[in-house]
Amino acid sequence: MMFTPDQSARDLYRIWMRIMNKLNESESIPRRFGVDIPLYPSEIHTLQVIGDHPETNVRTVAEHLGITPGAASQTITKLSKRDLVTKVRGLKNEKEVHLVLTSSGRTAYDAHETIHELVFQKIAGRIGPLSSDQVSFLEHVLHAMESVYDERIDEVRSEMNELKPRREEKQ
Asked: To the nearest 5 percent, what fractions of the chain are helix, strand and coil?
């Protein structure tokens, strides 16, 4: 059965939106990752970036997660207050702050890595082997979707920034 490009793209988009809705729901559920403190996915993913990139900084965390530096900073501050991350001043430049996992942060990171591997193995098992053409196609589709959402986020932010002065004028 052959699909038109428009129909195929719509079907893929509907599946993508279902996955996004499930991911959004998942983001609202905190979990324990071998520590007494329940962590939201946004928090554990911040720990993941710091664990994967030792001595990283707020800007790098934001880039890896695709969020604003302000959002990354807020999460890092929470994690620091909960003794999962330590902020260390740079030796060469005192303005530079590096982020390091504490022992509790490392425990949560390791537990999360184990869960990620289990999820990856389940997905890989259900997909089965892929040809290089299939991998290229999937990468093409996912990069296209990501770039559309990057553009949409920029558009919405721009629209919201345009509304700010109007709201302030009314007050």
From this structure: 70, 10, 20
What CA–CA distance (Å, rounded) separates 40 from 30? 4
Residue linked to tokens 């040809």: 131
Residue ranges for the chain with pLDDT beneath 70? 1-5, 91-94, 165-171
Burial of 85 (0-12, 13-18, 19+ CB in 10 A): buried
**Dihedral angle of Cα 23, 28, 29, 35, to the nearest 10 degrees:** 110
Which residue(s) pair with 86 in the sheet?
Answer: 100
What pLDDT does residue 157 have? 86
Measured CA to CA, the distance from residue 32 to residue 39 in angstroms comes to 6
pLDDT of residue 55: 78
pLDDT tens-digit map of 152-170 = 988 998 988 888 766 556 5
Residue 144 backbone phi and psi in degrees, to 5: -60, -45
Backbone angles phi, psi at 73, to 5 degrees: -60, -40
User: Position of tokens 């207050």?
Assistant: 81
The residues, any chain, with a CB within 8 Å of residue 11's CB and separated by 6 or more, are 3
Q: Whose structure tokens read 């720990």? A: 47
At residue 1, the pLDDT reads 53
